Amino acid sequence: MNDRMLTLVGPDLPSVGPDDVPAAYRAIAAQGWTVDANDACLLSALEGGYRGSTVEEFQDIVHFEATVNGRAMMDYDLPAAGPERQDQLLRRSIAYACMVLQAVPAESEHAVLGYVSLSEGGLSDDTLTSHVTFCTRRPGVLPYVDQIQGYSEEALLELSRDDAVKVLAARTN
Predict the structure, then answer these.
(1) DSSP 8-state secondary structure symbol assigned to residue 125
(2) How far apart are CA 79 and CA 146, in angstroms?
(3) pLDDT per position as a tens digit, 86-138
(4) Partner residues linked to 119 by β-bridges
(5) Cα–Cα distance for residue pair 33/108, rounded to 1 Å
(6) What is the largest distance, in Å, between two alpha-carbon atoms of the chain?
(7) Cα atoms found within 13 Å of the Cα of residue 10, Cβ hemisphere only
(8) Over the stretch 17-48, which tens digit does the pLDDT of each residue have?
(9) Which of 51, 67, 76, 112 is the most buried (most CB within 10 A)?
C-alpha cells in the first residue's frame, strides 16, 4: 500500500467480510472468473457487459484486464462526506476485492492482483470515491502498478489472493 492508504488503515487492514459488500458486488464475485480467447483473466459477470476497445487496442493485456474488471464502488447510500463515508467506502472496497480474489482459481496461470483506490472525485473533485479493479501480473509485461508510492494523489492498496484469504479469515477468528 502507498503512504496515503497506510495513513487511512494503519499497518493492518480492517477486518471485513461478505456482509460489508453490497449485494450487486457479491453477485459479481459469485460468478467467478473467465479466461478469454486472448488469455485475459476477466470477471465473468463483467466480461459480457464490456463494450469498449479490443485487447489489441490497449497498451497490453494487463491494462485490458484492469479496464474490463474495474468498477467504482457503490456509494449513493453513504453520507456525502466525513469519516463514516471514508470508513464505509474503504470497508466495502476491501471486502469486495477480497471476495473476488478469493474466487481466483488456485491453479490460475498468472497471479491476479486487486487494486483499491480512494481519491477525491465528483463534479468539483470534492467527493471521496473508491475504485476497485483486478488484473494479472505476467512475465515480460509491465505491472499495472509499478511503483505504488508514486501514486501520491490517491490512497492505493494492492492485494493478492493470499492477502485476501488472510483478511477474510481474520473476520472469522
Answers:
(1) T
(2) 33
(3) 999 999 999 999 999 999 988 888 999 999 999 987 667 778 999 999 999 99
(4) 129
(5) 10
(6) 45
(7) 5
(8) 999 999 999 999 999 999 988 899 999 999 87
(9) 112
